[in-house]
Amino acid sequence: MPDSKKVTLSDVAKVAGVSLSTASKALNGSARISEATRARIEEVARRLDFQPNALAQSFARGRSQTIGILTQNAIGTWSAPILVGAASYLGRHEHATLFYDAAFDAEVLEASIRRLRARRIDGLLVIGDGPHYNLRSVTHSFSVPVTYVFTSTDGPDDATFVPDGVMAGRLAAQHLLEIGRRRVAHLTAADDIAATERLQGLTEGLAAAGLAPVAVHAQRDWSEETGAATATALLRSGVEFDAIFCGNDHVARGAEKVLLAAGLRVPDDVALVGVDNWEGTIVGQGTRHLTTIDPLLSRLGTAAAKDVLSADHVGGRQPQPCVLVIGETTVG
Amino acid sequence: MPDSKKVTLSDVAKVAGVSLSTASKALNGSARISEATRARIEEVARRLDFQPNALAQSFARGRSQTIGILTQNAIGTWSAPILVGAASYLGRHEHATLFYDAAFDAEVLEASIRRLRARRIDGLLVIGDGPHYNLRSVTHSFSVPVTYVFTSTDGPDDATFVPDGVMAGRLAAQHLLEIGRRRVAHLTAADDIAATERLQGLTEGLAAAGLAPVAVHAQRDWSEETGAATATALLRSGVEFDAIFCGNDHVARGAEKVLLAAGLRVPDDVALVGVDNWEGTIVGQGTRHLTTIDPLLSRLGTAAAKDVLSADHVGGRQPQPCVLVIGETTVG
DNA sequence: CTGAAAGCGCTTACAG
DNA sequence: CTGAAAGCGCTTACAG
Fold first, then answer.
1. Superfamily of domain covering B66-163+297-320
2. Strand spans (E) along chain A
């Protein structure tokens, strides 16, 4: 049965013996229509396998039932789970998603914005590449709601959905305290919004037990190299520690290598917690090695999609919960 | 400037002092229009910042300029690069993408198909979860071209774009021969289309040098456990080997652990080649460890997108090239 | 080369 | 509760 043999609403109306407008109202729920009429029209529609032409509906209504999704870097590993979380929520709520990838390119971005506007989207989701730096706000280019995910923007009122970095730090602290650690060091990236939040959470979490981080080492980025370098610095400093909260999983991996090479045991001598749950994204993994904080990116996408669709689309930063994922580096 | 202040084509026509139809023709390239008129209309359109209402255009033309993308498992790591490759090609060619994820669920799939049809897509890309098993063909549900990517289907005439498994095997063989290996073993999954192809390529590649695989061990799946188990079996068998071509990267990882535990050196004693380029998907990695065959998934998505858009949309299986990526496990 | 007119398939005030 | 009619903003034969 290739395509809806072009059964049109007037076909339905004709067969059901009613006017076009009555048929339309009956099928769209609202409006006062006698139950009998409605039932008859619905029966006919079903029998003829009537599929309303969504193009015509959108055009007539002036709403496209489509949400634009604009990624900065779709190929990056972050975007996929967010995209999927958002798209599946939107799909369940009768909205299609119109997907463009700007690939960090200003011209492509400009072209994408033009096309999204031409397509009369009902809202836009902008997926960033991490809450680390400020994206240029594009809200002013649209008259429909714009919601940002996994990024910060230079528009202070923009609705931005990001993982709660403070919560991440607090969860790490609580877990380390629970397994009896008291001397927690922190290795992370410098000059980074997310890093700052995570440290704040760690500090708050430890403070609840009357403690503070025994050391904080920060370098430029979030790489394995940074992890190795800061771990080396930590060892050399002579500070005593029985746990490290690492700014992310890469840092944790670098730190672990250095610790093991120095003859320390993980977790017996030093417990290790990361952030991101990299392992979770890799299929076919057996045991879970690294204890980490999962930013629940798919859920983040869902939350943002819900926001962009909602009548009272919110503004401002909207931190979303993370969860602790326990692995061998804290509970051998 | 929120949204295109509803400047309409008739506004442009009025200002330019021409009829609606002339304005339309001038802006759409075709039709014989005097250069002077066309220039004037274009100038007015630009000046008024006219953005054609894509909804109205689609409706009038009966074509949506939209390609549906249906994933079986969007959250799986395979889909993302394919999706991005396809979407960015389509974006560059003035087509939007309408994204639905079936999440391996038959009911969701059914609903997605209904919606895609209602939206009058101009073509459909179905992204699978690997060429390992046959997807149920949905081609008959559409009157527009349907192209499959990274999957097999039960429709023999379906256009399916898959990585060339034979080429993958051949590339591995050639590389191993080039670095002087003569005794190549193969560890892989059983009862799998892709596995069979890769073995065939390996066999062909070795045959060119008058050789054959010294051993082939296959187990149920593609996991790290399978790699470890088959590598153990290989070691116990007493067969001499100086290289292993592994069915995929997970298998290679499992095999490497077993080899190292047995006191063998990689690559000095045994060179190791995988398939998939898992490492390539993980950002922030430093050195490349595993030599592998990259299936170029993003390119695969692009090729499929090109096909679905092309007038002479092809049928049948369309194997696409892979490339060798050299790492420490063959060239220490 | 240019324009008047019909039509794409719906929705939605407005009357009745 | 039901229907006649206008309209959404374009495209596209068809005349001229």
1. Response regulator (3.40.50.2300)
2. 66-71, 96-101, 123-127, 134-135, 146-149, 152-153, 159-163, 184-189, 215-219, 243-246, 271-275, 291-294, 317-320, 323-325
Distance, in Å, from the CA atom of B9 to the CA atom of B15, rounded to the nearest integer, reads: 10
Residue B101, pLDDT > 50, answer yes
A9-57 pLDDT, tens digit per residue, is 989 998 999 988 899 988 886 667 888 888 889 899 999 989 898 889 9
A23-32, A238-247, B182-191, B323-332: least confident range: A23-32
- What's the pLDDT tens digit per position in B230-287? 999 999 999 999 999 999 999 999 999 999 999 999 999 999 999 999 887 765 555 6
Integer Cα distance of A289 and A278 in angstroms: 11
Of B75, B88, B115, the CB nearest to A81: B75
**Cβ–Cβ < 8 Å for A310, A67:** no
Q: Answer whether CATH 3.50.50.60 is correct for domain A165-295+324-331.
A: no
Mean of pLDDT values over B202-211: 97
* Residue B91: exposure state from Cβ atoms within 10 A (0-12, 13-18, ≥19): buried
Q: Domain A9-52 - what CATH class? A: mainly alpha
Residue of A70, A283, A289, A296 to mutate when probing chain B, most B C-beta within 10 A: A283
What Rg value do the Cα atoms of chain B yield, rounded? 26
Query: Where would I find the beta strands (DSSP E) of A44-166?
Result: 66-71, 96-101, 123-127, 134-135, 146-149, 152-153, 159-163
For chain A, residues classed under CATH 1.10.260.40 are 9-52
Verify if strand C has an atom below 7 Å from the CB of A8.
yes
Contacts of A120 in chain B (CB under 8 A): 53-55
Distance A305 CA to D5 C1' (A): 39
Query: At A5, is the pLDDT very low, low, confident or very high (cuts 50, 70, 90)?
Result: low
Give me the residue label for tokens 């959250």.
Answer: B75
Q: What is the pLDDT of residue B185?
A: 98
pLDDT for position A3: 43
Helix (H, G, I), strand (E, B) or coil at B318: strand
Give residue A25's pLDDT. 87
Q: Which nucleotides of D are covered by protein (CB under 7 A)?
A: 1-13
Q: Which residues in chain B (94-123) have CB-CB distances under 8 A to chain A?
A: 94, 96-101, 103, 112, 114-115, 117-120
Average pLDDT of the residues of chain A: 90
Establish if A280 touches chain B: CB-CB under 8 angstroms: no
Q: Are A181 and A241 in contact (CB under 8 A)?
A: no
Mean pLDDT score, B96-120: 86
Please state, in angstroms and rounded to a whole number, the distance separating the CA atoms of residues B304 and A195: 40
Q: What is the DSSP letter of A214?
A: S
Identify the three-state secondary structure at position A269: coil
The Cα of A270 is separated from the nearest Cα of chain B by a number of Å equal to 24
What is the least distance, in Å, from the CA of A307 to any CA of chain B?
A: 19
> Which regions of chain B carry the CATH code 3.40.50.2300?
66-163+297-320, 165-295+324-331
pLDDT band, very low/low/confident/very high, at B29 (cuts 50, 70, 90): low
